[in-house]
Design brief:
The structure is a single chain. With 79 residues, this protein is an alpha/beta fold. It is built from three helices and three strands.
Length: 79
């Protein structure tokens, strides 16, 4: 089980075959969203992300938006 934002980033930065991230209601907050955004910049297997009710603020949302500019594999994101 992943316990920190850094673990999440490291896990998703490596090709792992996952195509869906479901973190709804996990309170990853902006720190987690920023870590996730860094991983999404290099991960091309993820197509769907559910981050609803995850307490993400402006800083985290901005980081995710920047990641989406370089990641064309994501087709569905729920915030």
């Amino acid at each position: 089980m992943l316990k920190t934002a850094t673990e999440l980033r490291n896990f998703l930065s490596n090709p792992n075959g996952y195509d869906n991230i479901h973190l709804r209601g996990n309170d990853i907050e902006s720190e987690g969203a920023i870590a996730l955004a860094k991983a999404l910049k290099v991960n091309s297997s993820i197509t769907k992300i559910d981050l609803a009710y995850s307490s993400i603020r402006n800083e985290g949302a901005t980081a995710l938006a920047e990641a989406l500019k370089v990641n064309s594999s994501i087709t569905d994101i729920d915030l």
